Amino acid sequence: MLLAKPAIAEKVQEANADIKCLREDNPLIWPLMTLFKTSVRSWKVHHLATELQQRGLMHHLDDSPEKDLFKRNFLLMNALYELQEMLLPEQWLQVKSMDIQLFRLAPSNVLLLQHQDQALREYYLDWRNYDTCANVVKEMLASFWHSYEKYIGANPKRLAHMDALKVMELELDASDRDIRRQWRKLALRWHPDRPDGDAVKFRQICEAWQALKAS
Q: What residues does the J domain cover (predicted)?
């Protein structure tokens, strides 16, 4: 039994490393951007969850009501902090559980605000705190992506790898990191609720991103 403990500990460390290195994108980022664009109101986390659920974009996550609530909150807060980082330095997304609001201009004390929220932001950006394994997180995010693609009318048929790289304006030797960076850049540029956004181009980018992730 004593000999088995190091092996068990090693497996736990490997599982934690898998989740820590997870590079999946949270699909709730994009419908949240739409909600903030179409409404100037201040949101609460549970109101956002209800709104996304009504649109078919927030799934049931656990049979236990307590765990389901925790996982919904974690998924939303993760997306909010990801979006906050993406919108800087032009805009500021205030992320507080009872006061979530998009400001069109970032305040002059944005570094101080980030410092004040650092511990909470790091907690929600670390998938190890979701209390599950990396494969379950990947399956969950894939399910959410499927719902979002259906919601925006994306073609469920996957693009060929070469065609997807062309849509993403990437070279053949693009790394996973290059692909993810370019996905975020183009998605943020063409999101229909951004200035000069384009719904058709945004759908194409989503389709290309999904094809490259699966290849």
A: 163-215
Distance between CA 58 and CA 51 in Å, rounded? Answer: 9
Kindly provide the b/e burial profile for residues 185-197, where b requires at least 16 CB atoms within 10 angstroms of the residue's own CB: ebbbebbbeeeeb
Domain ranges of the chain: 24-152, 155-214
Mean pLDDT of 84-107: 91
**Check whether domain 155-214 has CATH 1.10.287.110, yes or no:** yes
- Compute the distance between CA of residue 73 and CA of residue 23 in angstroms, rounded to an integer: 20
Give the mean pLDDT of the chain: 83
CA torsion, ordered 54, 47, 100, 180, to nearest 10 deg: -30
Let me know: does 103 contact 87? Beta carbons within 8 Å. Answer: no
Q: pTM for this one?
A: 0.72
| pLDDT band per the 50, 70, 90 thresholds, residue 171 | very high
